[in-house]
Amino acid sequence: AQSVAQPEDQVNVAEGNPLTVKCTYSVSGNPYLFWYVQYPNRGLQFLLKYITGDNLVKGSYGFEAEFNKSQTSFHLKKPSALVSDSALYFCAVSPLNNAGNMLTFGGGTRLMVKP
Amino acid sequence: DGGITQSPKYLFRKEGQNVTLSCEQNLNHDAMYWYRQDPGQGLRLIYYSQIVNDFQKGDIAEGYSVSREKKESFPLTVTSAQKNPTAFYLCASSMRGTATLAGGIGEQFFGPGTRLTVL
User: Fold this and answer.
1) Which of B45, B90, B107 is facing A43, going by the closest CB pair?
2) In terms of pLDDT, which residue wins out, B39 or B56?
């Protein structure tokens, strides 16, 4: 069975500084990896995904994520944080051979960007 | 949240009552999902459906039931057997994934959620 770990419940960063939200995963075989963002009392919004190819994936709102197979990690990054980036972020994984589109989500990391 | 609607946004249930949460999508997706989100926790899968008239239990299906009579609709009933139903419920849909689908499996699109409170 697959699993996702987001080791930080909360990440605090000053506006304009780079941010990183960490994610590690465990899955049989090659993974599909996703990042989603959730604003208060809203559904999840898709940010980016890794399927295959270039290890650096670029997504919405200036976010990017780096796939590292040897470390089984998929950390979310942004060069310059905005106050509006403050939200709850979820990493999710699905195994490559999963025909059911089943995702396993991490527990979420709250990002707080302070002016 | 475009393409997926959930209603109502807020729902209150008395002890012993069944309630039904609505989920509709106009994205022509085959697969639909129901998740439960509790404070400080990630999403847990309740039920999913890959095609009309077929659905499967997720990790926490006890006390819940679903139907999938139409491609666009996947209602969730929270029954009186669910002892702790207060939570935020999220519906999602996606293209049905296959191992050979170009580009891999599609991402899931989420509705805005329904917050259920037991009085």
Assistant:
1) B90
2) B56
Measured distance CA(B12)–CA(B87) in Å, rounded: 11
Model pLDDT for residues B6-27, shown as the tens digit of each residue = 999 999 988 889 999 999 999 9
The letter for the amino acid at B33 is: Y
Nearest to B40 by CA among A38, A12, A69: A38
The span from the CA of B92 to the CA of B103, in Å, is 20
User: Quick one: tokens of B119?
Assistant: 């009085």
Separation CA A63–CA A47 (nearest Å): 7
Q: Give residue B70's Cα distance to chain centre.
A: 14
Identify the three-state secondary structure at position A61: helix
Interface test with A, best of B105, B110, B114, B116 (most A CBs within 10 A): B105
> Do residues A19 and A81 make contact, with C-beta atoms less than 8 angstroms apart?
yes
CB A93 within 8 A of CB A4: yes
Assess A54–B contact: CB distance below 8 Å, yes or no: no
Give the tens place of pLDDT for each residue, B57-116. 998 999 999 999 999 999 999 998 888 899 999 999 988 755 445 445 678 899 999 999
Query: Which among A101, A104, A109 is the top mutation candidate for probing chain B, defined by the most B β-carbons within 10 Å of its own β-carbon?
Result: A101
Radius of gyration (C-alpha) of chain B in whole angstroms: 14
Please give the sequence-ordered ranges of beta strands (E in DSSP) within A51-115, or none if there are none.
56-58, 64-68, 73-78, 87-95, 104-105, 109-114
